[in-house]
Design brief:
The chain has eleven helices and no strands. It is mainly α and 181 residues long.
């Protein structure tokens, strides 16, 4: 048996029309774009270009290009650029990335795909911090100072896991939209 909206609204005590609810949901979605989203494929490609990584134009589509670049591994220069941008030590950044110092010393050419992905994760969060806070120095300070909203951890330290990086991303989104963080 098919029910009309009015019959279902009466049965389930719904007061508003679906279109009104959809408009409200869309308004909330557009007010906070990218919540829980660490950028996207295009942003990942931009971060790779910032590191000086050539992303093959032969592969059609952004996702396959990003995957191919990560599979071939980021160059050691990407780690050094990120370290310099953040103003941290090799030891601190290597610990956040989960790369032992002895392994880091052996990585003179390229990182393995899983290591490259972790570097890209931290770089994407840093890039968002620069976008939100406008200045690189402000973003570096913000990334390396403890935040009450992150239970007293630094945003950089939180980026050691995907979940932590997403939480930092959410915090930056709230800051960008003027929501008390």
């Amino acid at each position: 048996m098919a029910y009309s909206f009015r019959q279902m609204a009466t049965k389930y005590q719904i007061e508003e029309e679906p279109a009104q609810r959809l408009e409200e949901t869309a308004a909330v979605y557009h007010a906070f774009p990218g919540v829980g989203n660490l950028g996207g494929i295009d942003e990942g490609l931009e971060v790779m270009r910032d590191f000086g990584v050539r992303v093959s134009a032969k592969v059609a589509g952004a996702l396959p290009r990003l995957r191919a670049a990560l599979q071939s591994g980021l160059p050691r220069a990407a780690f050094e650029k990120l370290r310099a941008d953040l103003g941290t030590t090799n030891d601190e950044l290597a610990e956040v990335l989960g790369i032992p110092l002895r392994t880091l010393a052996r990585r003179t050419d390229r990182f393995k795909p899983d290591e490259s992905e972790r570097i890209l994760r931290v770089a994407s969060v840093y890039r968002k911090a620069v976008d939100v806070l406008v200045e690189c120095d402000a973003a570096s300070r913000w990334m390396t100072r403890p935040k009450r909203a992150l239970s007293g951890l630094t945003p950089l330290r939180c980026c050691d896991t995907e979940f932590g990086a997403r939480e930092v991303d959410r915090l930056l989104t709230r800051i960008a939209h003027g929501v008390f963080a």
